Q: What sequence folds into this?
């Protein structure tokens, strides 16, 4: 039997500043293939080329990746400002209904950075356009200079609830993570549980309460060094287990997430 398929949500891009392309980070595919042990399938997130029902049929689970464009504020009832940055309305049109459908069906997804924010918006939540402008908040953005290793280095702790799924998964209530984002959760969406926060109170980990399937999502980037990092690896292993369960006709709610030996 072939491995289950994980649809990796891609981003619109320009090659050489002129050639339109659908892009996906290599490290996302590596994490899905080598750690989650699933087949990575890059999805051009554009409703002109596919529908949500088609994606639900083709893929067993979904990786909601990070990306430079942000969710358009009209999706959560706010006006666009320069602080909101660039947008990808085609991706909005695919991911937001896809998330809602997955929550209802119990089909697993794993949200990362923008994907984390998409989960919140899809379920009725709102976002801050720029975390670093808020009183008492740190700068969570990616360092503008340096090597990839320096950009993705561990920068702050994330503290989880004592009895939540992330603590069970990691076997610890606190971990160190990287930080490469500008926006963040303002108000949680319906049934969205913020289960992990940075020292400045910024939401860093969530799940959807009562959802019949895997919905763990994080604000940091666990795809970096996923095979070796002690925080990243359990996340992708658990996601892979949930996708395989779905492939067998079973849903795996977050209540069933436990620490894996892998």
A:
């Amino acid at each position: 039997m072939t491995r289950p398929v994980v649809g990796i949500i891609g981003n619109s891009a320009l090659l050489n500043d002129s050639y339109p392309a659908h892009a996906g980070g290599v490290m996302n595919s590596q994490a899905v293939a080598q750690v989650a042990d699933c087949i990575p399938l890059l999805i051009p997130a554009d409703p002109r080329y596919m529908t949500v029902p088609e994606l639900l049929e083709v893929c067993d689970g979904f990786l909601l990746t990070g990306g430079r464009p942000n969710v358009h504020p009209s999706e959560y009832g706010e006006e666009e400002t320069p602080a909101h940055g660039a947008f990808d309305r085609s991706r909005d049109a695919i991911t937001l209904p896809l998330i809602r459908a997955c929550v209802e069906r119990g089909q697993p997804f794993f949200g990362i950075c923008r994907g984390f924010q998409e989960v919140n918006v899809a379920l009725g939540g709102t976002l801050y356009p720029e975390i670093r402008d808020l009183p008492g908040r740190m700068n969570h953005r990616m360092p503008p200079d340096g090597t990839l290793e320096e950009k993705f280095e561990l920068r702050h702790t994330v503290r989880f609830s004592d009895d939540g799924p992330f603590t069970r998964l990691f076997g610890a209530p606190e971990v160190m993570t990287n930080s490469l984002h500008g926006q963040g959760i303002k108000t949680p969406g319906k049934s969205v549980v913020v289960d992990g926060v940075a020292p400045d109170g910024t939401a860093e980990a969530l799940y959807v309460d009562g959802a019949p399937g895997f919905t763990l999502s994080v604000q940091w980037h666990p795809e970096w060094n996923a095979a070796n990092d002690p925080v990243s690896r359990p996340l992708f292993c658990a996601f892979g287990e949930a996708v395989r369960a779905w492939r067998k006709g079973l849903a795996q709610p977050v209540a069933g997430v436990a620490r894996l030996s892998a």
About this structure: The chain has a mean pLDDT of 92. The chain is about 25% helix and 20% strand. The CA atoms of residues 27 and 224 lie 6 Å apart. The helical segments are 26-35, 52-58, 89-105, 114-122, 148-151, 165-170, 232-247.
